[in-house]
Amino acid sequence: MSTFRSRVWSRLDKACRLLPIVVNTVLVLSITAEVSYLVLVEAPREPEQQKSEWSAVWKSVHLLCQYYMLGNITWNASLFLKTSPSIRGVFLGGEGVGQGWRYCYTCETHTPPRCSHCYDCNVCVLRRDHHCVFFGQCVGFRNYRYFLSCLLFMWAGLLYAVVMNAEVFIVILKEGVTLHSVMLLIVPWIMLVSGQVTARAFAFAFIADTCVIGFLLVAAFLFFHVGLMLRGQTTREWYSSRRPYSLGLLGNVRECLGQRWYLCWLSPLIPSPLPGDGIHFQVTGPLEPAGSTASL
């Protein structure tokens, strides 16, 4: 009985971990399909402009930009998931244990500075930043570039989608700021279930709302992590306000994005070797938080 329960729990846990990835994939594809429809069918709205040669060029440029961003999002996300930041298969060099090293009783090994154990991944992660529930994997030394690039293109893509969906908000609010239009924008699900709107109107309102909310959330994550990168910090170090590994603005960017930091964000296919090994870091400041030495 206990074996059956553990098996069910294991499958349920695995499904819960995959659920955010599935939801994100469905939302990204839904937004892409809706914006493609707006470009190909709804815009430009004037019949004379739709027949012009400029209309075909306009649509081609929009579709090219749109699928360029979608390709970067999916490819960066794929490489992020394939690139493990853990200590598995990494020779840590037991003889080089020094300041900042700790012993992990779960992994039964000494771990280098900025490395910590993730209980979701059940392994220690090199230069661990945090465990991303949306991807189901830790953000660490080897996959930070793909995580940041994915956030960048998600932000750009959602900004583009919000601009393209501005027409949807205009159409909904054309009748004026009424209870019906406000309810459709705020709670489209209730309007659909109660039969107040068609499935088509619901789909456009829901995706437009998702674009706005998603843009604000992704923008917050992106700017937060760009700030951390420029300061040479991880999220764990930001909590303790420590900056012992900051190498200056350019050095911090190079450490996260690699030698070709100025090009690698354009495409995940551009190689950009990281300057370090994720084990040894140049110390430029105190390793302990301010005041900890005095209290001792």
Automatic annotation (TrEMBL):
Family: Belongs to the DHHC palmitoyltransferase family.
Compartments where located: Membrane
Enzyme class: transferase
Predominant location: membrane
Record's bilayer topology term: Multi-pass membrane protein
Native species: Anguilla anguilla (European freshwater eel)
Highest taxon listed in the record's lineage: Eukaryota
Protein name: Palmitoyltransferase
Domain notes: The DHHC domain is required for palmitoyltransferase activity.
EC number: 2.3.1.225
